[in-house]
Specification:
With 198 residues, the chain is of the alpha/beta class. The chain contains eight helices and seven strands, in the order ββααααβαβαββαβα. It folds into two domains: 126 residues, 3-Layer(aba) Sandwich (Rossmann fold); 55 residues, no CATH class.
Length: 198
Amino acid sequence: MYKTVELKKPTIILDLDETLIDTKEIKRRIFNLVEKTGVPRGVAVGVYRQMRKKSAFDQRRYCFELKKTGYKVNPNLFNNLFSKPKDYNYRGAEQFLKNLSKHFNLLLLTFGVPSFQNKKIEQAGFKQFFQKVLITEQESKLDLLRTLKSGTGKIILIDNSKVSIYTAKRLNAPAILVKNRKSGVPDYRAILTKLKEV
């Protein structure tokens, strides 16, 4: 169970994956690395999808599941996946966070295995903008959202997941669904415009 977090000024809760960083690119690179070891791409993708139906991505568990199909992949293969700073950040994400942090408390709420999510957060260089980083292995984020209380009563969720948006609305919290431009990059300007309406 999570303990209650008291927030002193208006707060924006932001998602990480596909909101601030390009996790499709991370997956593409994971599959490329695995394919170079001799695993057919179809197997690499299929095992990933099966694993994700049950839980968040974990590199050790992924390698264990690949082994069941007859392919041995060392989990250390992924050690350099996050070695280049800001490599997966969406263009404009850092400026978006700078703008938001001038007027709001920012809280990062992300779904995944903590060790893997922490690597992404560290690589992105966004930690400086957030008063708190919360990682949950529950995809709906419901229990964690319930623990957040703002002294101002104003908490807004920004996320790319329709499930998370629905969850926030069930808790009577305003929520903004992240939509991407044709380029695949989130439309941060549209989000800032919607924030003025909330």
